Amino acid sequence: MSLEGTAVSIKSMEIRGAAEIARRAADALRQEALEYQGHDAKELWARMQRGKGMLLASRPTAVSLWNGVQAVFKGASPEMGSDVLRRTLVSNADTFIKRANEAVDIIGRMGSKRIRDGDWVLTHCNSKAALSVIIQAHKEGKKMEVFATESRPWRQGLLTLRDLAFVGIEPTLIVDSAARWLMKDVDVVVVGADTICSNGALINKIGTSQIALAAHEARVPFLVAAETFKFSPKTMYGELVEIEERDSSEVVRPDEVPAGAKILNPVFDATPPEYIDAIITEVGLVPPSAAYEIIVKELGHEFIFERN
Ligand code: RUB
Asked: For the whole model, what pTM was predicted?
C-alpha cells in the first residue's frame, strides 16, 4: 500500500487500533524510503517529511502513531547522504515494527498472571494488547467468562468477539450501558490504550472511563495493557491530548436526525490514574505513577525533544 493509501486507510479506520496504525505508518515510511531511486539526500528527506506530515494528520489521538513515526526518523538527517539516510530509516522502521510485535506477546505473558482460573473478565473496544493478556490466560488453560462491550458507535466489540472465538474462547457481548450492571460479577477488567499521559491518565476508546469508574466503585481491578510506545512524551510539556471527533453518520443515519438536533461523536475519553490498578507494559507491570519514568527511560531524551 502507498503512503497516501496508508494515511487514507488510517483516517477511514480500515487500519485501526493504536499499535496497528503505528506499525503500518512505520512500514509506509519504510516503503517510501526504499522506493526512492535518486541520490539526493535532501530530496529524500523532503519526501519523507511530507509522508510524515500526511501520516500524522490522519488521526490525532493515539500517540503510538507519533511515537512510531518519530522512531523511524531517530538519528536520521539529510547530512548523512542518501544511502546512509535510506538505510537508517529502513532499519529504524524494521526495529520499531519488530519490537512492537514482540511487546504484545510479552504483555500477554505478564498480564495473564493477573487472571485466575474461573475469572470473569471484561474488556472494551478491540485492543490487541488487552486480548493478548486474555488469550495467553486461555492458552495456559485458565477457564474464563469473557465479556466484550459492543463499543458503539463503531462496534469494535464485534471484532473482539471474532478474535476471541478464533482461539476457542466463547465470549459474550454486552451493550456498553450494561457494563455497570455486569460489574458486580466481574473479577478483572483489561483494556488497551491509545495514549498514556505523563501523569498516568489513560486515553482510550470512548466509554473506558465509565467502565473504570464502575470497576473502582465495585473494587474490581482495572488493568491497562499498553506497549511503552503508547506513553506520550508530548504530555510531559503540558500538551493536552486531542480527542478525535468523528462524523455523526457513524452514530446515526443522517435521515434519522430531526431538524435542529445535533450529534456529538467523541471517540476517546480520559480515565484518571486513580482508577487504574496497573499498566502492563513490555518492561513490566507498573503503576500509573510510573508513566513519567517510562517516558524518560524507554522513549529517551532524544525522542522527547523531537517535537515536530
Ligand atoms: C481502538 C482502541 C484500542 C486501543 C488499543 O480505537 O481504543 O483500545 O487503540 O488497541 P479505534 P491496541 O478502533 O478507534 O482505533 O492494543 O490494539 O493498540
From this structure: 0.96
